[in-house]
Amino acid sequence: MNTDYDVLVIGAGPAGENAAARSQSTGLSAAIIEAHLVGGECSYYACMPSKALLRPGEVMTAVGRVPGAAAAVTGDIDIEAALSRRDSLSANFDDSGQVGWLESEGIYLIRGHGRITAERRVAVAHEDGTVNEYQASTAVIVATGTGAAWPPIPGLDQVGAWDNRDVTTAKEVPRRLVVLGGGVVGVEMAQAWKSLGSEEVTIIEAEQRLLPREEPFVGEELAAAFERLSIDVKVGTRMVAASRQASDGPVTATLEDGTEIVGDELLVAVGRRPHTRDIGLETIGLEPGGYLTVNDHMQTTTHPWLYAVGDVNGRALLTHTGKYQARIAGDHIAGKTDNITAYGDVKAVPRVVFTDPQIAAVGLTEAEARAKHDRVTTVSYNIGHTAGAAALGRGIRGTAQLVIDDGRRVILGATFVGPGVGEMLHAATIAIVGGVTLDQLWHAVPSFPTMSEVWLRFLEEYGL
Q: What pLDDT digit, counting tens, does each position of 419-434 carry?
């Protein structure tokens, strides 16, 4: 077996696949090391299955907004078909298609668990117990991603609580679901299973609002939508204990005020932790278990030959930013663009929460902008007042907001709340990355009747 490559990538999720492909495309030989499924968390346990679970309810709601069409919808969601579609979008946990793509790109796949043993050396423990060591002539890229964080709550380890993998692969609809955490995973899965038939869904969030990292109005408007769906939202409170009296019995979540919430399943969705505890970092003087600090070339700050892309570096825990970082790293390793550094993953991170209403945001929030810039203005508009929203159906509402640097007259951040607004986000991303001024945007005419007309309303609100 040829054990020498220019680039060794540990982890075959989207970031790792793209890092290997980018390196290979520049003429470097690349091998990728993976112990589980090629395609990673996003393909099998996160992005794809979660959106499949949300889609039936989203469609039903969209049809219900349209007079004439609403009357044509009778009956309930076909749960078996919905779960089958979920499994299909996850390739039924068969990564042969992803492996075939690696082969088509000329990337060698090494099955097993990779651990760094020395500079540019990685030992791979295979399933049969054998170990092979591989040498990279140029670089090693860590792309091992993250897993669910587990808070130190008494009893939580004993109740069989779900993490994101469990909730997206569940075979039956839980009658009562308790969700610990009001972040992206928590709110998406609360709405998904409620739309699929869960009778009671309760979200417990320690912060004062859902999606606390976004603009305050986001959490407020999402909570209002959840109230209409009979999803119980408890914010500003902490869970202090968990218990389950029988292995197949109900689980009880106890809050700090003594309130007890009973469910059939408990989802823990309080954040992520990097998969760096067992990849050999200690052999090169790095502390295992934490995020890997990188520069804007995605090089670790202590070892120029070691790169980290995707969730594992902690810069932006999103699939698309991991793929962006992978392209930066691959080009830098090849020496193609030594003068180009990453900044899109810190300046203009696009993020979409696929609830109904959708939440789409990019760049800085108003609070973040005011902490960094002296002159900041925000303009907002109810997206439901556009002609495009009226054409889509009844009852469409949601706040859209721009955060503007008055000195340079450019956009620092944008947030949209409403159905399908994720498809509107890229215009804002381009404006931020490109430094497009408001005066230039005045000549970018939005089509009618679309919800993108909100861009014209933004400029009018600003005073142009």
A: 999 999 999 999 999 9
Q: How many other C-beta atoms can be found within 10 angstroms of the C-beta atom of residue 264?
A: 18
The answer to whether the CB of 11 falls within 8 A of the CB of 31 is no
Give the max Cα distance, the chain.
69
Q: Provide the pLDDT for residue 411.
A: 98
- What are the extents of the domains in the chain? 4-44+90-147+273-345, 156-270, 357-462
Whether 156-270 and 357-462 share one fold: the answer is no
Instruction: Identify which of 152, 157, 229 has the alpha carbon closest to the alpha carbon of residue 198.
Output: 229
What's the pLDDT score for residue 191?
A: 98
> Taking CA 420 as the corner, what is the angle to CA 415 and CA 426, rounded to the nearest 5 degrees?
55
- What type of residue is 170? A
Q: Which helix (H) or strand (E) holds 307?
A: strand 306-308
What is the second-level CATH architecture of the domain 156-270? 3-Layer(bba) Sandwich (3.50)
Percentage of the chain lying above the pLDDT 70 cut:
99
> Tokens for 52?
């499949």
Q: Is 347 helix (H, G, I), strand (E, B) or coil?
A: helix
Q: Say if strands 231-235 and 251-255 run parallel, antiparallel, or are unpaired.
A: unpaired
Residue 252 in tokens: 């009880």
> Which pairs from 60-67 meet CB under 8 Å and 24+ separation?
60/195, 61/195, 61/356, 61/419, 62/392, 62/393, 62/419, 64/393, 65/392, 65/393, 65/394, 65/395, 65/396, 66/392, 66/393, 66/394, 67/394
CATH number corresponding to 357-462 = 3.30.390.30
> What is the per-residue pLDDT across 277-314, written as a single tens digit (0 to 9) for each?
999 999 999 999 999 999 999 999 999 999 999 999 99
End-to-end CA distance of the chain: 66
CA distance 63 to 393: 8
pLDDT of 2 over the 80 cut: no
Q: CA neighbours within 13 Å on the CB side: how many for 89?
A: 19
pLDDT digits (tens, 9 = 90+) for 356-410: 999 999 999 999 999 999 999 999 999 999 999 999 999 999 999 999 999 999 9
Asked: is 4-44+90-147+273-345 a CATH 3.50.50.60 domain? The reply is: yes
Phi, psi angle pair for 420, to nearest 5°: 70, 15
C-alpha closest to that of 307 among 93, 136, 169, 438: 136
